[in-house]
Design goal:
Length: about 260
């Protein structure tokens, strides 16, 4: 680990202690170790790009929009800009996993199209490329690291590409703003319907369904009726094997790592 990475981990610890005091929440040692690993690997993978960022954390805002019910709202986001010679690139950093972003590109296109519209049409800047950066470490790389096999780790690290180019379609901007407006009305009206069981079974990545990819990471799953029904066997009334749906599926090694990492906590 070089001096820069050590410095980043020092900042991480300082920020973590501050957030813990402010929010009153702590992380278990294994989750903290995973977060640190993510920071270090993300830096190793993208330091060339990070060095080129000319405008960091640029606030993009589209104010004074109207919902169908007449409410006023603004769309805001934060992006990074890289200017290389005559070429301008816009990056939106997401913590979502790579497979999910690749499988649901249209969701990210909608958001980035609005940011691109503000950047080009309202701020009168040139834009040549937009992309999402996924900061999450792919499972295959995590597995390789767990195996300790240096060749496998290097191979997975080299094949990891966290930058996902997103096409700009200015003609879709109005439709996207309209759909945001409808969501604002739903939020303000308190309309929060749960997805159906069949939604929970839909694939959201190449091999994971919504229940696995999203619900398993949702803190509300223990009291969510739809998830409970799904877990009981999609309405078949089977309570058998129920608990496995409430726990992450971990293999023996993972469980051992968890115990070791948290034993001193
Ligand atoms: S568990 Fe969470 S994400 Fe899944 S349906 Fe229920 S509330 Fe939505």
């Amino acid at each position: 680990m070089d001096a820069m990475e050590q410095k980043m981990l020092e900042f991480f610890d300082r920020n973590y202690e501050r957030l813990k005091l402010e929010g009153g929440h702590a992380l278990t040692e294994d989750i903290k170790a995973q977060a640190k690993l993510q920071v270090v690997l993300y830096w190793r993978k993208l330091k060339d790009l990070a060095d080129k960022i000319s405008d960091a954390e640029v606030r993009i805002a589209l104010p004074n929009q109207k919902t169908p019910k007449g409410r006023t709202f603004s769309i805001e986001g934060v992006v990074d800009i890289v200017r290389e010679g005559d070429v301008n690139q816009m990056y939106d950093i997401k913590t979502h996993d790579l497979a999910y972003i690749q499988h649901n590109k249209e969701l990210y296109e909608e958001q980035l199209n609005v940011y691109a519209h503000v950047w080009q049409e309202l701020r009168k800047n040139k834009l040549d490329l937009t992309a999402v950066i996924s900061t999450s470490v792919p499972q295959s790389l995590r597995d390789a690291m767990r195996s300790g096999n240096a060749v496998r780790i290097e191979k997975e690290f080299q094949s990891w590409n966290p930058v996902i180019p997103i096409a700009i379609h200015q003609d879709k901007v109005a439709k996207t703003i309209d759909s945001f407006a409808e969501v604002v009305d739903k939020i303000e009206d308190g309309v929060f319907p749960c997805p159906s069981i069949s939604d929970l079974k839909q694939k959201v990545t190449g091999n994971e369904i919504f229940a696995t990819n999203v619900c398993r990471n949702c803190d509300g799953r223990f009291s969510c009726e739809v998830y409970r029904e799904y877990a009981r066997g999609a309405g078949k009334g089977k309570a058998a094997d129920f608990m496995k749906y409430f726990e992450p599926s971990v293999d023996g090694n993972e469980q051992e790592d968890w115990l070791e990492a948290n034993a001193n906590f």
